[in-house]
Amino acid sequence: DLAYFGHIRPLKGIESFLHLISHFNKKIKIKLVGQVLEKYVDFFDKINIEAHELHVEMVLNKEENEVADILSQVKIVYLPFPDGISNRRGTLLASIQNGCVVVSTKSTIQDFNDFFEKYCYLVDTNQEAILIIERLLKGEIMPKEPKDIKYVFSWENVVDEHLKVYYNLV
C-alpha cells in the first residue's frame, strides 16, 4: 500500500518515513525499497532494526527492472526529502514513471512546488502526509494523474526539444 524508495543513507528522509508509518500500526502493507551503499552500512543497520520492529518489508539492492516491477504495484510512495521536492530527484521521477501516487515534502523553491503540485501531493509535515495517505487509501481523494509529467521527463520529449532547437537554427 505504501513505500519509501531510494538510497538508504542519512539525509534522505528515511527516519521521517519510519516515524510516519508508526502511525499506521500494521493496518497497511509497507515496503522500504532501496539500495544500501557500503559506506552507510552502520546507518542501514539502525534503520533495518527499526523497520523490522514496525513490520516493514525491506526490498534491498534489486536490479532496475525488479524495482520498476515493484513500484508498478505500489499504491503510494512517500518521499519525505529533507530539502523538498525537485526535478533532480531520480527516485521521484522513477516513482512517477512507474505509476505511483507520490506524496512528498514541499520545496523551499516555489517554482518546484508549483510544477509538482499538479502531479504529486505536497506536504509540510508528516501529520499532513498521514492525512493524505489515509484519505487516498480510503478513496476519499483521487490520485493525481501523472500522465503529462511522464512526457515532460521522457526521452521522447528530450528528442522533441532538441529538434525544436535544431529547426530554429536551420
Distance separating the two termini: 51 Å
Largest sheet: 6 strands, parallel
Shape: globular
The helix count comes to 8
Estimate the strand proportion. 15-25%
* Secondary structural class: alpha/beta
Determine the fraction of residues in helical runs and give it as a percent range.
40-55%
Low-confidence stretches: none
For the biggest β-sheet, the strand order reads: 3-2-1-4-5-6
Average pLDDT for all residues: 90
Count of DSSP strands: 6
Secondary-structure element series? EHEHEHEHEHEHHH
Radius of gyration, whole Å = 17 Å
Characteristic key phrases:
single chain, 170 residues, alpha/beta, six-stranded parallel β-sheet, globular
Task: Describe the 3D structure.
- The protein is built from eight helices and six strands, in the order βαβαβαβαβαβααα.
- The N and C termini lie far apart (51 Å).
- β2, α2 (41-53) and β3 (57-60) form a beta-alpha-beta unit.
- The protein has 170 residues and is of the alpha/beta class.
- 47% of the residues lie in helices and 18% in strands.
- Strands 3-2-1-4-5-6 form a six-stranded parallel sheet, sandwiched between helices.
- It has helices at residues 14-21, 41-53, 64-73, 90-97, 110-116, 126-138, 147-152, 155-169; strands spanning 2-8, 30-36, 57-60, 76-79, 101-105, 121-123.
- α1 (14-21) packs across α6 (126-138).
- The radius of gyration is 17 Å and the shape is globular.
